[in-house]
Design a protein that fits this description.
With 431 residues, the protein is an alpha/beta fold. Helix content is 38%, strand content 23%. The strands form 2 sheets. Strands 1, 2, 3, 4, 5, 14, 15 and 16 form an 8-stranded mixed sheet that branches. Strands 6-7-8-9-10-11-12-13 form an 8-stranded parallel sheet. Helix 5 crosses helix 6, helix 7 runs parallel beside helix 8 and helix 9 packs parallel to helix 10. The radius of gyration is 21 Å and the shape is globular. It binds N-(iminomethyl)-L-glutamic acid (NIG) and zinc ion (ZN). The site of zinc ion has 4 residues, from loops. It holds the Pfam family Amidohydro_1.
Amino acid sequence: MLILYNLHQIVQIVDDEEMECLRGDAMNSIKIIECENSSLAIFCDISGKIGALGTYQELIKKLENLYIDVSIIKHVDCKGGSVIPGLVDGHTHPVFAGDRVHEFAMKLAGATYMEVQKAGGGIHFTTQKTREASEDQLLKDFEVIAKEMLKSGTTLLEAKSGYGLDMETEIKQLQVLQSASKRLPLEISGTFCGAHAVPKGSTEEAQTKLIIETILPEIEHMQKSGELTVVENIDVFCEKGVFELESSQKILEAGKNIGLRANFHADELHPLGGAEMGAKIGATAMSHLEEISDEGLQAMSKTGTVAVLLPSTAYILRLTPPPARKMITAGIPVALGSDFNPNAYCLSMPTIMHLACVLFRMSMPEALVAATLNAAFSLGRGKTHGAIAVGRVADMVVLNTKKWEHLIYRFGCHHMVIEQVIKGGQIVFSK
Ligand SMILES: N=CN[C@@H](CCC(=O)O)C(=O)O
Ligand SMILES: [Zn+2]
């Protein structure tokens, strides 16, 4: 049990357990409680959920009425700061070996993402390194990243495989996520992304067949036996010259048939019609969408599929920004992800929110909703995570500023602002 006290602002986002995402204008009217004498407090109960919030005095009365001995509860003095929900990163590729710093130089010199990949670099380079690495080494490397993510305020993470492309290495990556989710306080929603690229020496058809007939059945078997409970989503890099619409749809549907949520890369580099196809098959979420068509926008707004936008990638690859404003106006739930991977080496969701504001013209409240409640919704957790409300999981980030907006405003300086990170009612980072 834990009590946060001396809070100036509690940024709840929403104040109930029912609202699972915010759309349109509602993304700008987030619920914030403020108190001039900074006497606000939050109680995290024994099950790691938000038990109560309000002024400290109100809280104490409530707890005494429940015969809870307040003196034995750990108190955290927030010194007049603010608190926001734990950040949710809706899209990452965090399990890999090696780096691609040399490719950054090539891209700065003018090479495009697909040119690097066609020359054997990009995902192929990382796949080779990841195949060669041991599971232990991958786990050690991922733990370093995961700890940095927690320090940056991320408490729930979508994390993909996709640098194995063969059965052995894909399962190895998923097992790393499985072990990490047991060892670390970072909550992980794992994604099988065996269709991240067509492996060297194979074809789109052969890789599609391998995924549907061999790897997915193995994942299903390991899920049923309890060995791979971390896998919740299926992903495909649905892109011209990689996995076209037909194979992408087949793979996503096969994943859905074993209970995975379709959550995939769509319309990043070409307007392929991925958004239309995803809406048609009932995808939960689609990422990137820089090249989405107006028809795709309409289709997504009808089905309520989440658009997971990735500002660091658009920035690094100098892509046309996705039409975030049109998406919000059309009522599409917009979420954010860091897309942390060897091409876009940024894991800080505060930085991602800043980029979303400047590059995609989102407001600060919209960016925060996208990096909390709406990202949680894209991972099937819209009713339990992503907001500070009684009954929800107590995932929170304590800031040392009266106004929460400092976390976005101070570009690249989130470490100056974040004091504590709380996951399930436990302090998992303290400055
Ligand atoms: N576009 C496909 N996949 C990743 C990049 C992965 C990589 O380049 O290693 C993305 O979302 O940006
Ligand atoms: Zn990605």
